[in-house]
Design a protein that fits this description.
- The protein has 75 residues and is mainly α.
- 73% of the residues lie in helices and 0% in strands.
- It is built from 3 helices and no strands.
- It starts with 7 loop residues before the first helix and ends with a helix.
């Protein structure tokens, strides 16, 4: 993920929009919006599970990505 947006809500919208655009571009018509959303949420889970070297920033990162996941569910 090269682009991190300041607000978790904006990040969730960006990720979902980007993922949907990729699906459209690849003409993967059998994938529904829910499938794509689920895949993006799995990606967020992997981000949350990844070991973090910077322990001081870890709690902030976990809070951020947990919020991103919450907003994804709501989209």
């Amino acid at each position: 993920m090269s682009k991190l947006l300041p607000s978790p809500k904006a990040q969730a919208k960006f990720m979902l929009r980007h993922a949907l655009a990729v699906v459209k571009e690849m003409k993967l018509t059998e994938l529904s919006r829910d499938n794509v959303k689920e895949s993006v949420m799995l990606a967020v889970d992997k981000i949350l599970a990844a070991p973090v070297e910077d322990k001081t920033g870890e709690q902030q990162a976990v809070k951020y990505w947990t919020k991103v996941k919450k907003y994804l569910k709501e989209l």
